[in-house]
Structure formats: structure tokens, C-alpha cells
Amino acid sequence: MTATLTHWINGAAQPGASDRFGDVYNPAAGEVVARVPLASSDEVESAVQAAAEAAPGWAATPPIQRARVIFAFKELVESRKEDLARVVTREHGKVLSDALGSVSRGIEVLEFACGIPHLLRGDYTQSVGTGVDSFSSRQPLGVVAGITPFNFPAMVPMWMFPVAIACGNTFILKPSEKDPTAAMMLAEWLTEAGCPDGVFNVVHGDKEAVDAILAHPDIAAVSFVGSTPIAEYVYHTGCAHGKRVQALGGAKNHAVVMPDADLTMASDALIGAAYGSAGERCMAVSVAVAIGDKVGDALIEDLKPKIESIKVGPGTDGEADMGPLVTKAHYDKVRGYVDIGVEEGAELVIDGRDLSLQGYENGYFIGPCLFDRVTPDMRIYKEEIFGPVLSVVRAPDYDAALQMVNEHEFGNGVAIFTRDGDAAREFANKVEIGMVGVNVPIPVPVAYHSFGGWKRSLFGDHAMHGMEGVRFYTKLKTVTSRWPTGIRSGVDLSFPMMS
Ligand code: NAD
Q: CA-CA-CA-CA torsion for 35, 40, 42, 46, nearest 10 degrees?
């Protein structure tokens, strides 16, 4: 008997009413573990109504009281993080330690959100003119929505709603329909932490729910994280409906390995960055750019035994380094890309395609794959694979490597491995990428900085969390005031001067 999930609307579980459901799988076993309701526009409407009714009261709640709710919620998530991680592992497939790490990164955003009252403080200037004072403040937008991907079912929602709620907005989350249970746990715990009904709502669904969110006149802003084609669609459709939109998309993150790099350190870092979470991370490194053939040959030699020793298994196996891919469709897509790479003439140094695990024959497991001599015209270089496939590209020199990175359509993350401070500084300045690592393979900014790429990895003007998140979820208002005492009367049509 598989469980049937509900939506979470106005502080309570709401069974799906559309008669459309999706299957949620345990990808290690290839078995359905739950059914998720797929909302119609009517169900989105009832979530918007609940959020809109709660909005004025929540906006008027003093920021410190809102922060106390987030603080109580943080305590609950902290004390139950293993439960949350287990659910992430069950529905996503990533190994438990990795799931736990992602929950911890989400908790860091909660910690940041507890301090948001400090960031909502405005500026005040006394006497901008004679007897005239001016102050500015940041006010919430009202009802806002978040649409999230499968690869971080707890962390990516936590990039969004704690900041939005702490800023005084009410929130509707449309999580990925592939691993939706984590969102429901967060909703229940937020209510338990004292969050008023209607402030946080979860509506499950697919394109129909997303389209209803994008078109709804009472939703002021939409945050999206997912693949680039959908990010672009969400951005343009949301903007056409007058909304503020931040839409984070896909990635193809390069790591440039310079001839002076500590090669062992670089290859160790590449293993974690390429194969951690089976490559299903938007900050995964999927391209290693070796400067010169000598570096390329040495890198391949160093990587090979390390990759061969990666243990693939179900996420619940404490010995496993890498779990399965999220769905059968995604498994087919990743496997298909490895076939394409071979057809394109790249050298498949390690082939993980035919991995079979005893007892898990129906799971969506693929072993780590390594390609050498990949070139920028190949599809496996240009397109996001989102699986455990690392491509080594050989560039003649640093300038060619920089140009290659800058010409790629994506601009999420990049890393350079070098001992040369000048080269690292010049690279960090000139590279057309939003998040840059120097000897750091996955340069994910901490919660009080902001997360976001450039080019076709982010549509919109704001990155997530940190000050960028606060700016996204608030409107600036500036009040200029003068009190009647001593004001001269009389009509004056000239341009206002503060003198
Ligand atoms: P996806 O684009 O398929 O889905 C993301 C969300 O959009 C889901 O909630 C889904 O229900 C919805 N959606 C899917 N198809 C839709 C459609 N046709 N119309 C409207 N909505 C639709 O992405 P995914 O497969 O869940 O996640 C993986 C992708 O997310 C990868 O491309 C990865 O790089 C990206 N990602 C990016 C970041 C980042 O910060 N840039 C972070 C995590 C994941």
C-alpha cells in the first residue's frame, strides 16, 4: 500500500481534488513509494486565497516575532534533520551523508533568516530640507511563490521560503513532483513552530500548477530553480504577467587545472565534485579543462583508480559513495549521453553504463563515467547531462581555457586549480561565471552571501538568499515628511527643492 500525499493549505493537509496523481519512486529499488496529487488551477486558487488572507497580518507582525518563528522552526529541523535526510535519500536516491549535508546547508539559510530584522532596517536622514526628514524601509511584496527542482528537495525550498517569510511575505511552494515528501515535513514543522495558517502553503503538481501560479494576479513574485528551458519559460511568462521573477537554470561547470596545480588535490576535488550525488548537482563539475597534454595525461592517470574505487549502492548503505539516478527517464537520458559521447568520438576511459547491483537490479544505477579528449563542438560538452559523467577537455593554454569557459552558454560555477595567485586573480576577474572557486571545486556561497549564476544559468536580476534574497522579497519605500509647524502656506508649482 503506497501512501498518498496531500497538499498543505492554510495550515492543514488538503487531499488532492483534481483526480490527477503522479508516482513517487524509490530510485534504488525502482519501486513506487508514494502517490502525489497534481493540482489543478482550483487548488492553486485555494492556496493563493489562504496566502492572501494571511498576508496583511503577517506583514504587520513585528519582524522580530517573525524571526522567532523561523528560530523555533530551525530548532525543529535541527533536531529532526536525520528524519528529513532519510526521506530525501528514499525519494531522491543520494547517499544519506550527502542528504544530511544538504539539509545542513538549508539550516544555514534558516540561521541567516533569523537575523533578517537587522537587514530590514531602513535609512533615516534628518533635515533633508528645512524641517523635512526622510526615511526608507523595505516592505514585503505580499503573496510569493517558489517552484523547485528534484535534486535538493529540502535545501532549495529553504533557499527561498525562510527569507521570504522573514521579510513578511506569505508563501506558496510548488516542490518537485519527483520527491515531494520533504516539503510536507517542512510545512508541518513550520506550523508546529508557530507559523500562522496560510503563511506557508504547499501545492504539488506539474505544468498545470506552475502555469496557474504564473498567471495568478495575486502572486507578486516567483522564485524558480530548475532546468534552463523551464527557467526561461517561467521567467518570460511570469514577467508577462507583471511579476518579479528570479529563475535559476542549468549548468555546465568547468574546473581549469593549470600546469602548476597540486594535481593530487585537484583530482581528489574533481572526484567529489563530479560524482557526488551522482552528478545531480547544479554545482557539479562536469568538465575538467587540462592546460596542455602533460596535465591532461597526468590527470587521467590520477583520476582513473580513484574513480574505479567509487562504491555505488543504495543511499541507505553507509559504505556507498554514490546512489542511483532519480528516475528511469533520467537514467535513460544520462546513459543516452554516454552513447552520444562515444558516437561523437570522445574517448570513454571509464564506462559505468552496464553496472548492475545484486538485489537492486531494478534500481536506476549507473556507474561513474570518464571521457577524455572531449571537444567543445560535442553535445556531451555543450549540454547539461546531470549525471556521473566527467569530461576532460585539453586546452593548449590558459587563454584558450578562459575563452572556452566564457563562450559556454551556462554561467553557474567554475573553479581554477593553481598555485599562482596572479593567474587565479586574473581568472576570477575575467571569467563570465557567477560563482568562482580558487582551489575550491564547488564554490557554493554560504547563506549570508548569495547563490546565483550568470548567462543562461539565471534569468532575472537577483540571486538567492543573502542580501540579494532580501532585496528580491521586498520593495523599497522612501518617505519624506514635513510637519505643519512653521510651514509657509501658498501654492507653488515650481520643482520641489529641499531648501
Ligand atoms: P525541471 O526544470 O524539470 O523542473 C523544475 C520545476 O519545474 C519542477 O517543480 C517541475 O515540476 C517544474 N516543471 C517541469 N516541467 C515544466 C513545464 N514544462 N512547465 C512548467 N513547469 C515545469 O528541473 P529538474 O529536473 O527538477 O531539476 C534539475 C535541473 O535543475 C538541472 O537542470 C539543474 O541544473 C537545475 N538546478 C539548478 C540550480 C541552480 O541553482 N541554478 C539548482 C538546482 C538545480
A: 50
* Cα 336 to the center of its chain, rounded Å: 25
Protein residue with its CA nearest to atom 38 in ligand 1: 282
Instruction: Kindly write down the DSSP assignment for every residue of 31-43, as one continuous string.
Output: EEEEEEE---HHH
DSSP 168-223: T-EEEEE--TTS-HHHHHHHHHHHHTTPPTTSEEE---SHHHHHHHHH-TTEEEEE
In ligand 1, the atom with minimum distance to the C-alpha of 384 is 32
Burial of 354 (0-12, 13-18, 19+ CB in 10 A): exposed
- Ligand 1 pocket, residue 386 CB under 6 Å: yes
What's the gap between Cα 315 and its chain centre? Answer: 21
Q: Please confirm, yes or no, whether 282 is among the known catalytic residues.
A: yes
Nearest to 47 by CA among 196, 153, 174, 215: 174
Q: What is the pLDDT of residues 459-485, one digit of tens each?
A: 999 999 999 999 999 999 999 999 877
Q: 230 C-alpha to center of ligand 1: Å?
A: 7
Q: Judge whether residue 342 has pLDDT over 70.
A: yes
Residues 6+ apart with CB under 8 A from 22: 35, 36, 38, 177, 204, 206
Report CA(31)–ligand 1 centroid distance (Å): 22
From 114, 167, 195, 282, the catalytic residue: 282
